[in-house]
Design a protein that fits this description.
Number of strands: 35
Distance between the termini: 138 Å
CATH class of the largest domain: Mainly Beta
Number of helices: 3
Strand content: 35-45%
Amino acid sequence: MCSVSWQRCKGEPTMNRICPHCGEELPENASFCPYCAHSLNVRVECKPPKAIWGRILHIGIMVAIAAGIMCAAWLYTRPQELEGAGSVQYTDADGSYQIHLANSSERFEPPKVVNVKCEPGEEYRFPLCVTFYDSRTGENVSHSMAKKIKYSQISFEQPENSAYPWRATEPVYSGARPDAALTSFMDFVLESGSSRIIWTLGMTNGDTIRLYLDMEIEEIPVMHYYPEDTPMQTAEELQALVDEVDRTVPPETVVYLHLPAVTYTGDLTIDQHPINLCGSEEGRTVFTGHIYVTTMAKKLINYFDHIDFLGSRDRIGISAANRVHLTDCTISGWKTGVLAYGDTWVNAMHCRWENNQIGFHFNADNADGSRVSHTQYTGNQFIGNGTAVLLENVPTDISLKFADCRFAGNEVDIDNRCRQELDISQAVFE
């Protein structure tokens, strides 16, 4: 049976409603079939509204978590820039470290400010070391960390257009300071003035580390004595002058005695205030007696420059129980030319040691090495001695360097009884 019947009304087709259940024609606007009583309303399944805001919130949380992870990864991997006065705490993928900037590689709390006393007209060199320590164990790890350093550079914050600017040697590994990753020497004079030293390390992982140290320069009071103004023509007059210095000059004052071109035949004792003996530039100043150096000042050094020490083979020329530096001196004809003993350090450069039973005898017992100045013995000549250099006890494990030294005609060139480490690679033995 067709469910649709067409009637003509006013020439237009009309579609009558038919019950979908029984097929009978339905009255207009019927909501149920009068024949089978079925409802004619169309039932549509109602679905709850989608939780769109919940979905948005869920997506937002996931995006935030992903962003956080990406940010953390970026923060962890991005290059660090660290800065510290004297030291800095540094962490990389392998561990955590304390980096020190100081004048030695020994582990201590490095200073932020270093005070240096200088004399007018003198040149100074100050060592600086970069040293790494494991933060957990305290172990020195400079050797392994040095491999992670891509570059190293030193700069100074100092007055512009200075006539005497601060300078630094290239940072390198130094055998004199084997526990440090890098060592550099700062060169300056009094007129350079105070400065901030900035040491920058560029690591292979992109990190940048800056360590800085403030150097405060202070002028040392200095007194000069000249033969034109002060009696010093004889050994007796010279001893009287040294004794007067002991009584009247403050301990921190540096004293220079500018000696005439004479021969001092008596002994000289320097037992309190350190004295710098400067030989005549118009001739040679000669000592034939014994020089005793027993001063107890730990900071100041007795400098002997441009002097001839000529003696007899039954005496000691210079016996030093405190620090002595000899430059451009001749030490000849002694049983022992120079004896270093007790708590001291003795250094000599560009000196001539000739015809001594023992030229230079090092027998000091400064156990902690605090008196060690430097270990360069450059340009010395050891000629015709019984034993040129006798090393019985040397208070340092740092190598003694005999660069440009000449050993000729000695019965024994170097008697190294204490097995001191030596660098004789640039010495000449004839």
